UniProtKB/TrEMBL annotation:
<protein>
    <submittedName>
        <fullName>Anti-sigma factor antagonist</fullName>
    </submittedName>
</protein>
<dbReference type="GO" id="GO:0043856">
    <property type="term" value="F:anti-sigma factor antagonist activity"/>
</dbReference>
<feature type="domain" description="STAS">
    <location>
        <begin position="26"/>
        <end position="103"/>
    </location>
</feature>
<dbReference type="InterPro" id="IPR002645">
    <property type="entry name" value="STAS_dom"/>
</dbReference>
<dbReference type="Pfam" id="PF01740">
    <property type="entry name" value="STAS"/>
</dbReference>
<dbReference type="InterPro" id="IPR036513">
    <property type="entry name" value="STAS_dom_sf"/>
</dbReference>
Amino acid sequence: MLNFRMEDQSVVASLEGTRRINSKISDLVKKEIIEFIEQSGKQIVLDLKGISFIDSQGFSALKAIAELACAQDRLFALANVSDDVLELVELVGLKDAFVIGKN
């Protein structure tokens, strides 16, 4: 479900087989990305291409990842954020919690 690929100074994580980050997968996403941040020492970008919805547990997981990355002086960014997901980020008041790149 979660794939990692190296690109220069960062690692890009992408989700396959889902269009949502919700309660079913948020804990797995959080666990795998946090493990990768702690072990690799690299900056990480979560590619949200194809993701059209994130629920409250998904946002909680993403916020926890961002906080850990910040505490370890690493960048955690979201890439290929759709307009629908960007609208959700703004609605839940987390726009300033993430570095965000649109499609």
